[in-house]
Write a structure and sequence with these properties.
binds pyridoxal-5'-phosphate; 15 helices; seven-stranded mixed beta sheet; alpha/beta; 45% helix; three-stranded antiparallel beta sheet
Length: 348
């Protein structure tokens, strides 16, 4: 099988496992795990923030982040395909009483004008106040889109001018950094809270970190415990994340090349499935035209290629550490053939 459903499917490498086994650990609820502390400090520094908090998942880190920035009864603004809106199971409403207002986006691209058009600074007693704007970089369901630095700066300034806080869902900000060359601290400095993941392109089995001010992180630590997310000898997992930073960050460029190889093979057979220019990192979103996405995903699985159906006519392939560029090219040929053949049947 060539598994391109997500970059979360990778298994820890032998080197990563050896590092995990050798990690010094302690009880992290007592603040005594040296490996967790090392990871938290390192990630905070990389992103230009004061402190960090290691969490079991990106979803938990986002829930803590939004809960700190947005009061119950306020809203967070994000785009219509944001992970926090589509895939976090309503946690922000269920846990914090926070509503979401979304703006339409093309490939998840941030647009400061759209944010400005719907935001509602906390002044009026008649309207739900916007507590925060949340941005995703890279954008998952948009197809690994790297946000423009100009738009990020514009939104950051807009929020600052209106007393609205800023959240970056940077689960794949590593990919954005490698693709754009923009410094991690430059991305991080534009936001009040940033969350990053190690269990995606970086190839660790588990873990995300939230970074912010010392005070915000202290509050997030309490909220994490309240939600059952306090953990003990978590250094065994933090060690995997540290290993990933040391060994798997620069190689994300290989995943980006593999995604291009995949998309190129598709486009040679089914030109309207994807715009090659839109393939910026490790995620390729394909449009299946007349054909049901689930049918394409099933037919691909029959030929040993796993991809995700994300909508009625949209499938996603994600490249990662456990597939080669040649695998991805072959997968693109298979899926391109399926799309071309299915399309010509649909037209007949
Ligand atoms: C952009 C983005 N944010 C957050 C998450 C949540 O991460 P987790 O699966 O660790 O909860 C994901 C997961 O795929 C994601 O793609």
């Amino acid at each position: 099988m060539i598994d391109l459903r997500s970059d979360t499917v990778t298994k820890p490498t032998p080197g990563m496992l050896a590092t995990m086994l050798a990690a010094p650990v302690g009880d992290d609820v007592y603040g005594e795990d040296p490996t967790v502390t090392e990871l938290e400090q390192r990630v905070a520094e990389l992103l230009g923030h004061e402190a960090g908090l290691f969490c079991v998942s990106g979803s938990l880190a986002n829930v803590l982040g939004i809960g700190l920035l947005v009061q119950p009864g306020q809203e967070v603004i994000c785009d219509v395909a944001a992970h926090i809106a589509r895939a976090e199971m309503g946690a922000h409403a269920a846990v914090h009483g926070v509503t979401m207002r979304t703006y339409p986006s093309v490939q998840g691209r941030l647009d400061a004008d759209q944010v400005a058009a719907i935001m509602s600074p906390p002044a009026s007693p008649f309207l739900v106040a916007t507590g925060a704007v949340s941005v995703e970089n890279t954008h998952n369901f948009g197809g690994g889109t790297v946000q423009s630095l100009d738009q990020l700066k514009a939104v950051s300034e807009l929020c600052r001018d209106h007393g609205i806080r800023r959240h970056l869902d940077g689960a794949r900000v590593w990919n954005a950094h490698i693709a754009s060359g923009v410094d991690l601290a430059t991305y991080g400095g534009l936001f009040d809270i940033v969350t990053v993941a190690f269990s995606k392109g970086l190839g660790a089995p588990i873990g995300s970190v939230l970074v912010s001010t010392k005070d915000n992180v202290a509050q997030a630590r309490v909220m994490r415990k309240r939600l059952g997310g306090g953990w003990r000898q978590a250094g065994i997992l933090a060690a995997a994340a540290i290993y990933a930073l040391d060994h798997h960050l620069e190689r994300l460029a290989d995943d980006h090349a593999a995604a291009r190889a995949f998309a190129t093979a598709v486009v040679e057979r089914a030109p309207s499935a994807v715009d090659l220019e839109s393939v910026e990192t490790n995620i390729v979103v394909l449009y299946t035209g007349q054909v049901a996405a689930a049918g394409i995903a099933r037919a691909a699985a029959d030929q040993g290629i796993l991809i995700s159906a994300l909508g009625p006519h949209m499938v996603r392939a994600v490249t990662h550490l456990d597939v080669t560029e040649a695998d991805c090219s072959r997968a693109g040929q298979v899926i391109g053939d399926l799309l071309r053949d299915a399309d010509s049947r649909a037209l007949r």
